[in-house]
Amino acid sequence: MIAEAGLVALWFAAMVAGLQLLLGVLALRRKGAVGEQAMAAIGPVAIVQGALVAMAMAALIAVFLNTDLSVELVAENSHSAKPWIYKFAGAWGNHEGSMLLWVTILGAGGALVAWKERTLDRATHVATLAAQGAIALGFYAFLLFASNPFARLNPAPIEGQGLNPLLQDPGLAFHPPTLYAGYVGLSVAFSFAVGALVTGQVGPAFARAMRPWVLGAWVLLTIGITAGSYWAYYELGWGGWWFWDPVENASLMPWLAATALLHSVNVLAARDGLRAWTVMLAVVAFSMSMIGTFLVRSGILTSVHAFAVDPRRGAFILALLGLYIGGALALFGARIGQVRAGRSFAFVSREGGLVVNNLLLSVILGIVLIGTLYPLVAAGFGVRLSVGPPFFHAAAGPIALVLVAVMAVGPTLRWRSDEAEAVLIRMLWPMVAAAGTFALMLTLTGGMGVLSLLGLSFGVGLIVASILPITRRNWRRTPLPIWGMVVAHVGLGVSMIGMACDSAFTAERLVALYPGQATIVGPWRVKLDRIYPNVGPNWSALEARLTATRDGDGETLRPQQRFFTDPPTTTSESAIATRWDGQLYTVLGQQDAATGRWQLRLWWKPFVTLIWLGGALIALGGVLALVGRWLKAWQQRRREALWG
Amino acid sequence: MKRALIWLPLGLFGVLFVVIAAGLMRPADTGVHSTLVDKPLPAFELAPMVPGKPGLASSNFGTGKPRLLNVFASWCIPCVAEAPQLMALKARGVPIDAIAIHDKGPAVAAFLRRNGDPYSAIGDDSRSRVQMSLGSSGVPETFLIDGRGRIVRQYIGDIRADQVDQIVRDMAATR
Fold first, then answer.
1. How high is the pLDDT of residue A443?
2. pLDDT at A300 over 70
3. Which of A282, A394, A427, B45 qualifies as a FRET site for B159, CA 20 to 30 Å off?
């Protein structure tokens, strides 16, 4: 019953989305009463669409919470003996459910645009909502015709097949919604761009309307990627935090595009420059989100994240992709000529710095895209290969370092034009800091990798440079968006230091020990006390008790080999001791059949936590900027109300 | 120039679209292919697995005639399914050597009694060392080694009845 109600809500949502598109076309094409009525109706219609699709999602969550095994999706992905939180999150831990979650957030985003957006001119607003309706319509069709989440199973099985244990982790329960909300925030920017191309209204007002959406999406993507990276780090038990897996790349590409967009939209808002470029980036950012989702869902790239390998579904989404991205790019080609060129500027200027930043981000984006798709191209020529860290590090690393240098200089530049010599003088302290770090590391360590050494030095330099813009200011009168920029840029520097330290100073040990034996990893002495069984709600485990000691400091760690029965899977649950200067990471392996010794994998990772701390700072910077913009808009409205 | 630039993104997306569409058309190939195909057989020397049958060394190959190298195990069910095809190949004059992985002599002897013995020599690779050096990821797998000791072909999985003729032809085409 609940499942059928969900399906009905989904059909209605699809029809309402069609109506939303139709009303938009009417409002823009017809003058007079019909157009006026269509214009007035489209907002409420978008809100109704959001409510309907939310009902469908709620129905899916309800059947998962009840473990209604007569629903095929539940039977295939859930199990009655699963903790409720994973039943809840299991609703989107599969192909159909995750696609429904995607359109739900899309619908909610459209409703929010209809309800809250007031800065945009009316025609562009209507065109934006029509574009949102068009995107939603395609994905509804995909759900209803190719991926129905509410399909019934007759007869119902006695028990479900369970959720992949790797996904049974509280962090991962909320990882997909965060990333999806980020992707969908970018869909709003995409719709804005399409709307603005239709009406030709590209200017500061358009940029100011789009900015909060881009910022919000970017913050969510940052959080999603950072959290996903930490999940991979502690859950997979490989001790790495980024694997250049196609799906990681799929989330990184929209983030890179959104980062570029975030900066160019500021130029458009503040200086009325980079009009065409900003529109282009808004299209690219969401296109990358869709391509990313598509690559993951279609199974054409093998990945740990692939849910469904079904070429028919792939063909369907590919057709949607061609329609939306191809359509938007064609519209761009046809209409951008009619958008007046923005204001010009000198090369050495804040705008110039931002253009260079944008170009470098685009190049990195291109490298990641090529690296991700290259195995596919090579397969076409009969060559099987995988593109891994060596390619990405060698190709993107040096460009990322140049980008960091531009990041250091950029915020200190003046708008419109600046003096090159003055810039050099301003960069004195950051350069001293970077060179000092470089020299210090070279003498202290002797041999560390070039990329790590440069990464560490540039990271330190970036932190010093990022603080410069606020050193001469009155802190209480410094606007929040400036603080946001400083915090985010410092965050990237912090993250870089973490990455460099992790790759340069990590100590790794793979040993086989009898209980009672000890070994040394980095500054730690780790003793295997004993091995004993343990049980949880839906797993049993072999657990090791390790005592780690380091000059008076000690901690007991309990890594596990965990066995799940539904589906039958073994996972390594790592145990991590966190200290201010790094993490001790322990994984329990197999017992050696011949000798009876236990394999242990131990890592001492100095300052590795800085990677995610930096990520959190980057996101915090975005939040500060967003709050700052809201406060300013609110104050302005209040002032207008008072004097108005 | 400016106009061309405006249409460039659409063109790039078109290329991307074609690449992805082509990738979608091709069925996924999930086999793990050895990178040693077309390369010389790595050097190894394995002790005999069962009494009365010699062990296997890389020097057994490359003596002017092509030979098959079968990687199997007595505990492997597809290897049982494959056994009649190997016997058929032997009957048609194809010389076959084997590497038994993670196995014990008595178990292999019992396997050969039950399923037939197509092998001229069987090497004992109890820790899969040689299997891994061959770039083989599971059992059964069969390699075709030419008369100069180079790996010419890799057959992944059990050899099916309809593959026997093809393998005989492959052998004939190899020197």
1. 83
2. no
3. B45
- Are A191 and A132 contacting, i.e. CB atoms less than 8 angstroms apart? yes
Nearest CA in chain A to B19: A377
Per-residue confidence band for A308, with pLDDT thresholds at 50, 70 and 90: very low
CB contact under 8 A, B13 and A287: yes
Out of A276, A300, A377, whose CB is closest to B24? A300
Tokens, residue A193? 């761009």
How far is the C-alpha of A599 from the C-alpha of A510, rounded, in Å?
7
Which chain A residues touch B if contact means CB-CB below 8 Å?
Answer: 276, 280, 283-284, 287, 291, 294-295, 298-300, 302, 309, 311, 314-315, 318, 321-322, 325-326, 329-330, 332-333, 336-337, 373, 376-377, 379-380, 384
Q: What is the pLDDT averaged over residues A453-473? A: 88
The C-alpha of A580 sits at a distance from chain B's nearest C-alpha, in angstroms, of 42
Q: Which run of H or of E encompasses A354?
A: helix A350-380
Smallest CA–CA distance, residue A400 to chain B, in Å, is 23
Alpha helix stretches (DSSP H) within B75-146:
77-91, 105-115, 129-133
Domains along chain B? 31-173 (3.40.30.10)
Residues A67, A87: contact at Cβ < 8 Å?
yes
Nearest Cβ partner for A333 among B6, B17, B33 = B6
Give B26 or A482, the one with higher predicted confidence: A482
pLDDT tops 60 at residue B30: no
Give the integer Cα–Cα distance in Å for B61 and B41: 8
pLDDT digits (tens, 9 = 90+) for A83-134: 888 888 888 878 888 889 989 999 999 999 888 877 778 888 888 999 999 9
- Give me the total of CB pairs closer than 8 Å, taking one residue from chain A and one from chain B: 64
SS3 of residue B31 by DSSP: coil
Chain B residues closer than 8 Å to A291 by CB: 16
**Strands, DSSP E only, in chain B?**
45-46, 56-57, 67-72, 96-101, 122-125, 141-145, 151-156
